[in-house]
Design goal:
The chain is α/β, with parallel strands linked by helices. The chain is built from 19 helices and ten strands.
């Protein structure tokens, strides 16, 4: 009997996805550039499962039923293109190539078009949940050739995480690179969530003098309330974890953060589409700043800041931290959804924003009870321009904003860096401002570059130039937006 799907690349994610599929009753053919790795897998964790090793790409393709579904789990970039080039001559019209890695959405759009021109179908599937999610049920965000969905849907929805009464955290996202775009935004929000939690942790540690043991019950309590989420839960568990000597392991971990690039892609795309993704941007830069460990150690002995001293009610301030984190989390998701909305308009996609929230409710890294509220917001108004305009989020952030202001006030007074929390409040205050000082900015631009400006006493779309010095003449620059 032929296999239902072929999988190329039995690394951490590929191996666990293969086990997941086999556990759901599918027969999986596997291949890897390392024959030893395949052999180790099928005789080890895959032993006794419906997983068959293939000695070559041709053997793998021949072993899969038509239309063939081939899942590629290889590093993003040139490795994907090289694999596609090797596979294409082996495939027949209607066969489906699936990229389950973290590819850039523009590459997926390009590859989809190339494959479709050859009569093949292509799927770019964002997969979130890490090693455990791949094995037990990830969130899967597929996009690409719409005609492929009917064939890959039974497998994807079978292996995906389930919520409520068995609803799979997987549905069709949209054409071309839409699936990988949504996964990219997911990762950007993940960067934001993680940085916000780290800043709250730092305020607890530095300002309040709390130990890991002190913080553990706080995060345990938060993990059962409106902040309930995977990242809060693992933070709770990290704070309780002890090293071999009985001391908190967290205190022994070097403060330099790594990243694989999806957060940067999110920020660059936001700049390209003109979306103020300020919180996630600060989260990316916070990781970059953390990598300058040697410089920071040197600067710490040279650059002086204010005295760190807290004289208030610690329990009340911890509660304010909870409110600040909740308010900032709302802003993080707001900005992520703004980016998806801009992409949908720019690329001609029809993204189901409420559906995306449903896909993120289980399996993925940013899963939380919070997402149900986003689904309800877009159910009530599918054309919602900004989450902050939804009644629930409007009222919630109105109640939590003072906590955010209080926390930031104390952090600033004591010199504790809170870039993501600060960006959240700055965005909120900017978005709710009917008037910003950009009128002066436009006057400056017109003064030195004749870039023109609009007037409040004239209709929008009418542009004017002033000869500010009397020496500049009346010639104006063209109006454009980069």
């Amino acid at each position: 009997m032929p296999s239902q799907i072929g999988l190329i690349g039995v690394g951490v994610m590929g191996e666990n996805l293969a086990l997941n599929m086999a556990g759901k009753g599918f027969t999986v053919s596997v291949f890897d550039a390392s024959a030893a790795r395949v052999q180790q897998f099928v005789t080890g964790r895959g032993r006794g499962r419906s997983i068959r090793a293939c000695p070559s790409l041709a053997a793998l393709v021949d072993s899969v039923e038509r239309p063939r579904k081939i899942l590629m789990m290889v590093p993003a970039g040139q490795a994907v293109d090289a694999l596609i080039e090797a596979l294409t001559p082996l495939l027949m019209p209607g066969d489906i190539l699936i990229d389950g890695g973290n590819s850039h959405f523009s590459d997926t759009t390009r590859r989809t078009r190339v494959m479709e021109a050859q009569g093949l179908l292509y799927v770019g599937a964002g997969v979130s949940g890490g090693e455990e999610g791949a094995l037990l049920g990830p969130s899967i965000m597929p996009g690409g050739s719409p005609a492929a969905w009917v064939s890959v849907k039974p497998i994807f929805q079978a292996i995906a995480a389930k919520v409520d009464e068995g609803v799979p955290c997987c549905d069709w996202v949209g054409a071309e690179g839409a699936g990988h775009f949504v996964k990219m935004v997911h990762n950007g929000i993940e960067y934001g969530d993680m940085q916000l939690i780290c800043e709250v942790y730092d305020v607890m540690r530095t300002l309040l003098g709390m130990t890991a043991e002190d913080m553990h019950p706080v995060f345990a309590e938060w993990s059962e309330g409106e902040l309930k989420s995977y990242l809060i839960e693992i933070t709770r568990d990290i704070l309780a974890f002890k090293d071999q000597d009985g001391l908190p392991l967290l205190d022994k971990i070097l403060d330099t953060a790594g990243q694989k690039g999806t957060g940067k892609w999110t920020v660059v795309t936001a700049l390209d589409l003109g979306v103020p993704l300020t919180l996630i941007t600060e989260s990316v830069f916070a990781r970059v700043l953390s990598s300058l460990k040697d410089e920071r150690v040197l600067a710490a002995g040279v650059l002086k800041g204010p005295e760190i001293r807290f004289t208030g009610d610690r329990a009340a301030f911890v509660n304010a931290l909870r409110g600040a984190l909740y308010a900032a989390k709302i802003i993080s998701y707001t900005q992520g959804y703004q980016l998806m909305r801009a992409a949908s308009l720019a690329f001609g996609w029809t993204l189901n924003y409420g559906g995306v929230a449903m896909m993120w409710r289980g399996g993925c890294i940013i899963r939380s009870v919070f997402l149900e509220k986003i689904k309800q917001a877009f159910d009530a108004d599918p054309e919602l321009e900004n989450l902050l305009l939804d009644p629930f989020f409007r009222d919630t952030i109105a109640g939590a904003q003072q906590s955010l202001r209080n926390v930031l006030g104390e952090a600033v007074k004591c010199g504790i860096p809170t870039p993501a929390l600060s960006a959240a409040l700055a965005y909120y205050d900017g978005y709710r401002s009917a008037n910003l000082p950009a009128n002066l900015l436009q006057a400056q631009r017109d003064f030195f570059g004749a870039h023109q400006y609009e007037r409040v006493d004239q209709s929008r779309g009418s542009f004017f130039h002033t000869n500010w010095t009397g020496r500049g003449g009346d010639t104006a620059s063209t109006v454009y937006s980069a």
